[in-house]
Amino acid sequence: MDVHDEGLFGPGSVTWRVHVEPVLWIAGMRALLLQSLHPRVMRGTYQNSALFDPKKAWPRFQRTVEFVGTRTFGSTAEVEAVAGRVRRLHTTLRGYDPDGTPFRLDEPEHLLWVHVCEIDSYVDVARRARVLDDADADTYVAENVRAAEVVGLDPAIVPSSRAEMAAYFDRMRPGLRMTDEARLGVGGLLRPQPHAPAGIAVALSTIAGLALGTLPRWARRMYGLPGLPTTDAATTAALRLTRGATTLLPDPPMPPRAARARDLVRSA
Q: Which of 10, 133, 194, 214 makes an SS bond possible with 6, Cβ 3.0 to 4.6 Å?
């Protein structure tokens, strides 16, 4: 491995600065909750993923975390390898509508929804926790067009600013709704994971509960929750307290590449 190969981003990037923050675990859960409101994406995920099987959810969640970690901090060769595996897997997966109509999980519109929900979630939590200001948030969105290319998306169709992401959600909202698959899947995420380590099992359900509060008001209403400004204010306060607490605690264990990235970001 070339010790100078920093992959897609590197220590001078906003992306590294965001992803070394422990509070961003909440954003990962927010992304899953937001992604679940797209009927076809949720249906395909529910039919093909172990994420919503209580016996398999924790290993599946770990694989997702590892993928994001490699994509963010890995060398070019490591990113290319994991990207190839993900794209090959996606080409084999099919979902089925209630009438039996099949669809591919790797259709660009599905991959784009997953990507935008993920990036919007990281930006939302990072801004509210005071990891980023508005200008850096736009830089983060632009940098992560590269992340969209990893799963096979044409960068020309990927939002590269917060304004473009907001316009994308405005276009998508009429087709979003809570499905039976979303109710079952998200209900499982909110319960402690029986096969995760004890402390993590409780933490995940707590993180999921806080992540619900970070959703946009229209998304919270789809989940049957109040879409009130007071919820936004309370959640923002909780995110800032959470981030403040993590700065006082010992650094949590991280994979070697992520730990190195954290040290480089701090030294910069």
A: 10
